[in-house]
Design a protein that fits this description.
Its EC number is 2.4.2.21. With 348 residues, the chain is α/β, with parallel strands linked by helices. It has helices at residues 3-9, 15-27, 36-49, 81-91, 96-103, 141-160, 175-187, 191-194, 203-220, 227-234, 237-252, 261-273, 292-299, 315-333, 337-344; strands at 59-66, 107-114, 165-171, 256-257, 281-282. The structure holds nicotinate mononucleotide and 5,6-dimethylbenzimidazole.
């Protein structure tokens, strides 16, 4: 599925469906707007799906798994080999997000979009890891587009399987370095401001990480007005794949729940490619990673959850589903003022 054709399919949300959804909320026997963002998110989903009859029965988490050449520079606490190990654990439902997803009835779809060795994870590899951005662009522009298209195709495969809502997740040692680099360029903020410790880096490691990011940006000069250039030069296959998930979801009219820092960096790139995508994205939590809040602010999204999480894998996104379920139950099942009044006037 070609990126250019997908972009053309992305439309504004359906205002009539949103109005009908709002009417239903306003008829429910409770104070107006009293479920706040839980009401708004159901209205958003009705606009995305073009129907006030909102359904969230079938939900899938897409986990883009990939390695990053920049790990050679000592910007992470653990080595690249961990990416493959954790990614294969997804297949055995043996990771934090898998436990959470089972609890929230979310199906888990890990994808090997560029792990550095062969794995038992479904293979959509663009390459065996990216290049080290300190010396070379992470990937070619063609590879960035290919990774985006993997994300788009994944969405359409899941649509075919009947999924009503998607969530984003990723696994890739070193991907907070690439996400920070992408954020630094797209937000026009220094690496100091947007770069944190990722998965448990030391203070000296953090200094090194910021320096490596600054050097990579200086060397490759990514064009902030061209998000594909930014993804190709200082991003990763996982981030590009997730950007494709947002673009694909918007084209397929499927709501997509965004996870933490890496997922938000990918969202910023996707919105840079096609601004209308923003309306199809549902935020979940604010990552504890330094740039997490900055990215949400730039996307104009407020988190539902502030849990100081920074695990990745899609854990924050999956954590939102029980809340979405409660909101939808009230929306679908609660009596209206009219119904209650009629009951109240029934003779005893
Ligand atoms: O999503 C987040 O907010 C987040 C913040 C920090 C770390 N992570 C996870 O940790 C890994 C990246 O950390 P690092 O230090 O290797 O760049 C990667 O597999 C992510 O899923 C995720
Ligand atoms: C063990 C481990 C699990 C992860 N899950 C997401 N990122 C991770 C990083 C590490 C190190």
């Amino acid at each position: 599925m070609k990126l250019n054709e997908i972009i053309k399919k992305i439309e504004p949300l359906d205002e009539l469906a949103k109005q009908n959804c709002r009417k239903r909320w306003d008829s429910i026997a409770k104070p107006l707007y009293s479920l706040g963002k839980l009401e708004e998110v159901i209205v958003q989903i009705s606009g995305i799906t073009k129907s006030h009859k909102v359904k969230l029965d079938k939900r899938a988490l897409v986990i883009m798994c990939a390695d990053n050449g920049v790990v050679e520079e000592g910007v992470t606490q653990v080595g690249s080999e961990i990416t493959a190990i954790v990614s294969e654990n997804f297949m055995d439902m043996n990771s934090c997000v898998c436990v959470m997803a089972q609890q929230a009835a979310v199906d888990v779809y890990p994808i090997d979009i560029g792990i550095m060795r062969d794995t038992k994870v479904p293979n959509r590899k663009v390459a065996y890891g990216t290049k080290n951005i300190r010396y070379e662009p992470a990937m070619t522009r063609e590879q960035a587009v290919q990774a985006i298209e993997v994300g788009i195709e994944t969405v359409f495969e899941l649509k075919e399987k009947g999924y009503h809502i998607l969530a984003t997740g990723e696994m890739g040692i070193g991907n907070t370095t690439t996400s920070s680099a992408v954020s630094s360029v797209l937000l026009e903020l220094s690496p100091e401001v947007v770069t944190g410790k990722g998965a448990g880096l030391s203070d000296t490691g953090l200094e090194k990480k910021r320096k490596v990011i600054a050097e990579a940006i200086e060397l490759h000069k990514p064009d902030k007005n061209d998000p594909i250039d930014v993804l190709a030069k200082v991003g990763g296959f996982d981030i590009a794949g997730l950007a494709g998930v947002y673009l694909g979801a918007a084209a397929a009219k499927i709501p997509v729940v965004m996870d933490g820092f890496i997922s938000a960096a990918a969202a910023l790139a996707a919105v840079g490619i096609e601004p209308e995508v923003i309306h199809y994205i549902i935020p979940s939590h604010v990552s504890k990673e330094s740039g997490g809040k900055r990215l949400l602010d730039a996307l104009g999204k407020e988190p539902f959850l502030t849990c100081d999480m920074c695990l990745g894998e899609g854990t924050g996104a999956v954590a939102l589903f029980p809340l979405l379920d409660m909101a939808l139950e009230v929306y679908l099942k609660m009596s209206t003022f009219e119904e209650i009044e009629i009951e109240a006037y029934q003779p005893l």
